[in-house]
Fold each of these.
Amino acid sequence: MSRWSKFSTGTRPRAVVATVITAGVLIACFGAASLFVYSGAYDVAGDTPHNQPVYWLLRNVRQNSIAARAHDVVPNDLGDAKRIASGAGQYAEMCSSCHLAPGMKRTEISRGLYPRAPELRRGSVLTPAEEFWVVKHGIKMTGMPAWGVTHDDEILWDVVAFLRKLPELTAEQYRAQVESAPTHDKMMLQMNIGH
Amino acid sequence: MTTHSYFGRLIGVAAVGLAMNLCPLPTVCFAHEGHQMECSDSSLNAMKADTQAMPDGKSKTTATKEMEAARDMMQKKDMKACLAHMHNAMEAIEK
């Protein structure tokens, strides 16, 4: 009887072989991953888009992560005109340079960001709670800042209220809405003195 | 010839000369307004990034197909066709 046939018949030697093979596969995977990380093989340049599988993976991780964390209770008054007007001013100040607005041409920053910031005048697939979560916490490695670090929740809900309205606005309506809004500096001052 | 018309012609010739200098390649001059498109890897990459950010739908499908067609044309060195497909892709992106 050969040495290998002896291994294949006994239960214990078979377990040893399986363990050795599993360990070998794990070591090979770890080695390949290390090689990938430390060789600098992956191109992180912002002007070279991810290939489709990587983009799919990152997009799905992002979408599911947001959906799993967006549990804040949505205020009932998102349709309130005052909220929307306030949100318009915040949007023009904080968001429009990347996410653009009705009647606005693409900016240098919007053309250079990768992944591209979504043009929110086209609408969004996110729920209000998800939009609030994104505005408040930002998204890693996308250029989306965490506005919750510097703004209170009420102001961020105003932005969400405006985002719900944005796709309906023409360029003129958007401009009028922003012009009628309290200025960003005034709102920040009010926030800081607790009004 | 009067001095006035002489200077008029001179300015006209200078303007044509300047335009020719600014547009060394016809493909660049025909590019979509504001995008400085040309049939190159960097322009196609920028366009790919734009299409990736689009919501799923007809426009995205059209943009993706046109962009792939543009890349094929670029590989075949047909720059005019490449630019035409890029233009179509850009139209779909901006819809």
Amino acid sequence: MAEMKSDPNKVWPTGLTEPEAEEVHRHLIQGTQIFGFIAVLAHLFAYIYSPWLK
Amino acid sequence: MIYGKIWLVVKPTVGIPLFLGAVAVSSFLVHYMLLTHTTWLPAYYEGHAKKTASIEAPVDTAAGPPTTLVAVAPQK
């Protein structure tokens, strides 16, 4: 524990540095955008080819 | 990136499964409710798609064009 706290850039309680936290968040946002794009496409196909909203 | 600092206070090992789980559960519930509370979605999955025009109003079709030709057996 003392070894981990030796890095002054680490922030607790998670022990990540600010750039690490930003990197995690960047990947999460990108994954959400890709998921959203696929979901929009799937709903478009559902709207066209299924009785949804007809 | 805005709100990126959340991972300084929420462990990614906790927050990311929580986030992805919330997305999965809520989207499953929405689609499950559609399946159980509508009539068109179960019918669609059962294969009862929209009736075609031919089923609604069948049209009589001629077997072939009228003709004056007569079949004659070959002479021996």
